[in-house]
Description:
Blueprint: E1 2-6, H1 13-24, E2 28-30, H2 31-41, H3 44-55, H4 61-71, E3 81-84, H5 90-102, E4 109-114, H6 117-124, H7 134-148, H8 150-157, E5 161-165, H9 170-181
Parallel strand pairs: 1-3, 1-4, 2-3, 4-5
Bound molecules: adenosine-5'-diphosphate.
Amino acid sequence: MDLVLLGPPGSGKGTQAERLTLAYQIPAISTGEILRAQRLAGTRLGRQARGFMDRGELVPDEVVIGIIGHRLDEPDTQTGFILDGFPRTVAQAQALDALLAQLERPIDAVLYLEIGRQALLDRLGHRHRSDDQPEIVAHRIDVYLQQTAPLIDYYRERGTLRAIDADQAEEVVFASITSRLG
Length: 182
Ligand code: ADP
């Protein structure tokens, strides 16, 4: 089962990815978490990414595409995976399609966590990450609307999009996800 979680920052992608991992025994892969780990470890990749992340900008496509290419080579992804926070641009989605075509394993579903801007601002106001200050959060939402939201149509056209109402309790959101996965 190859899944993608799509939605704005604060829509609950990480939370739902964790639940899906437990339920289906497949790894959740978060580019944001991988990048934060690289920063902590002080690697070259981490140093490259830091400025973009702190400003609420996207890290360059080739950097995250490289990360995902390596990660999907790991044996634990054989039976499936959940991508959380990737792809985030049309170029990333195209690169992912090319990668998965090579592996002969198309995406089964893109779970689009749909939620309004005010609900997001309320949720993100309660988090304590270095890129969760109000101005940076507002910028990350704008970046999402400009660069990531076009993926909604991209996947709708390909028939893989499943829209989920994400402005509900996390267990309710999870129940609607599993019902959509049939
Ligand atoms: P959120 O979903 O709350 O924005 P993430 O952990 O997914 O949090 O991402 C944090 C930051 O990491 C992003 O603002 C961006 O700078 C960087 N990042 C994560 N995934 C990607 C990606 N696929 N492409 C570019 N940048 C990314």
